[in-house]
């Protein structure tokens, strides 16, 4: 099945920009969908507060490598916040640089690894593919990273494996 999406700017800070994947036909970005799944007052309020505090820290200091746990393939920049042990909530992203972060979706860790989770695996696989597409476009010059901006063709199509 073909899946179309784009990457859009969602938050701009002095030293970093937050982007998110936005699936075609969806009203909200993946980042917004993540927070929609955990409304205020839900049983994961404390874990969501930890995620938000990490986002605040990143918005102030940049997407420093130490703030993320690698989750994809070596060198693809796919990671997760928070890195805190014991937190059941996962928000997946691509760290392109200290100044550019692309968010996907996430959820409750319900298996030993994301590969074993029917909920989390699709989110991480989408980010792994997106990272590969971006690196390919950077190589051929159709995407350029300038400071905290991604400039170029940010529309993507991927074939989902069933």
Number of domain units = 1
The radius of gyration is: 15 Å
Helical element count? 3
Low-confidence runs:
none
Element-level helix/strand string: EEHHEEEEHEEE
**Kindly, what is the distance between the CA atoms of the first and last residues, rounded to a whole number of angstroms?**
8 Å
- Portion of residues within helices: 25-40%
| DSSP strand tally | 9
Q: What shape does the CA trace take?
A: globular
> What proportion of the residues form beta strands (DSSP E)?
25-35%
Strand order of the largest sheet: 3-4-5-6-2-1-9
Major β-sheet profile: 7 strands, mixed
User: What value does the average pLDDT take?
Assistant: 94
Supply the helix-strand structural class. alpha+beta
């Amino acid at each position: 099945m073909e899946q179309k999406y784009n990457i859009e700017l969602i938050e701009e800070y002095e030293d970093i920009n937050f982007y998110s994947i936005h699936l075609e036909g969806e009203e909200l970005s993946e980042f917004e969908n993540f927070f929609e799944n955990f409304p205020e007052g839900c049983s994961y309020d404390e874990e969501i507060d930890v995620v938000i505090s990490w986002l605040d820290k990143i918005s102030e200091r940049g997407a420093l490598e130490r703030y993320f746990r690698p989750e994809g393939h070596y060198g693809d920049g796919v990671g997760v916040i928070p890195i805190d042990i014991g937190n059941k909530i996962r928000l997946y992203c691509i760290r392109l640089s200290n100044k550019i972060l692309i968010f996907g979706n996430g959820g409750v860790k319900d298996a030993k690894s994301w590969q074993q989770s029917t909920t989390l695996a699709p989110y991480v696989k989408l980010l792994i593919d997106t990272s590969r597409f971006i690196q390919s476009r950077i190589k051929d010059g159709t995407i350029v990273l300038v400071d905290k901006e991604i400039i170029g063709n940010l529309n993507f199509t991927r074939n989902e494996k069933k």
